[in-house]
Specification:
The structure is a single chain. The protein has 7 helices and 6 strands; from the N terminus they run ββββαβαβααααα. The chain is an alpha/beta fold. A 6-stranded mixed sheet has the order 1-4-3-2-5-6. A hairpin with a 4-residue loop joins β3 and β4. About 35% of the residues are buried.
Length: about 200
C-alpha cells in the first residue's frame, strides 16, 4: 500500500532532501490549454505527497519555494511537459532538473522504448500500470486507482536515475546528458511561448 497525503500545498516544515521526484497530472497534454490538476512528489523513501491544484489556482507558496530552490535537484520523467505546465500555471521555472526520459534516450540507444513503464520493467524488474493515465484528474476526490498511479510515477525515479547514470557513465555520455538537462527548462518555455512544434536548430 502506498503512503500518501492529500494537500493543497506542501507543509512549511517538509524536508524532501536534495533530490525530489516530481510529476504532474492535468486535464490534457497541452500545457498552454489544459489546466494542472495534481502535482505528486517523493523523496524516494516510499512516501508520496499529492498536491491537488484547484481550478484557477495560481499560488502554492511552499511548492514554489521548492521549485525555485537551486540546491534541490528536480527529478522528472518527460520533464519537458511537467516543467512547461508548472511554468504555465505558476510562472515558475523549475531548476536544476534531471529527466529520466532524456537520460534513457541518450543511454539506451539499443531501443526506442523510453516510457516510464518500459524503464521500470527493464531496469528495476517491476511492473506498473498506466491504466489511469487518461482519467479525470480534475475530480474533487481522486480514486484509489488514481492515487496508486500518481504515486508510481514518482516512487521509482530515484532508482531509475541511479541506473541510468551508471549507463551514461559507462558509455561516456553523462556530460552530454547534463547539458541537455540544463537546456530543458528553456525548451519548456519555448513550448509555452509558441515554439512547441518547431525545431529551432533546423536550417
Amino acid at each position: 500500500m502506498t503512503n500518501f497525503t492529500y494537500r493543497k500545498d506542501l507543509p512549511d516544515d517538509l524536508d524532501l532532501g536534495k533530490i525530489v521526484a516530481i510529476d504532474c497530472e492535468s486535464m490534457g497534454l497541452n500545457p498552454g490549454r489544459d489546466r494542472l490538476c495534481v502535482v505528486q512528489l517523493s523523496s524516494g523513501d516510499g512516501n508520496t505527497h499529492i498536491v491537488q491544484i484547484e481550478k484557477d489556482q495560481k499560488k502554492a507558496q511552499n511548492l514554489a519555494r521548492l521549485l525555485e530552490n537551486k540546491n534541490i535537484l528536480k527529478l522528472f520523467h518527460f520533464g519537458r511537459y511537467d516543467i512547461a505546465i508548472l511554468y504555465s500555471t505558476f510562472g515558475l521555472l523549475a531548476s536544476p532538473v534531471y529527466c529520466t526520459k532524456i537520460a534513457s534516450k541518450i543511454a539506451r540507444t539499443y531501443t526506442d522504448r523510453h516510457g516510464l513503464k518500459n524503464l521500470v520493467t527493464e531496469l528495476l524488474d517491476i511492473e506498473i500500470s498506466k491504466q489511469q493515465q487518461s482519467s479525470d484528474w480534475g475530480a474533487k476526490t481522486l480514486s484509489q486507482d488514481q492515487i496508486e498511479y500518481a504515486a508510481a510515477d514518482v516512487l521509482y525515479l530515484h532508482r531509475l536515475r541511479e541506473k541510468l547514470d551508471e549507463m551514461l557513465e559507462r558509455e561516456n555520455r553523462i556530460n552530454l546528458a547534463r547539458e541537455c538537462f540544463n537546456f530543458l527548462p528553456f525548451r519548456a518555455v519555448l513550448d509555452i511561448k509558441g515554439w512547441d512544434g518547431i525545431d529551432i536548430f533546423e536550417h
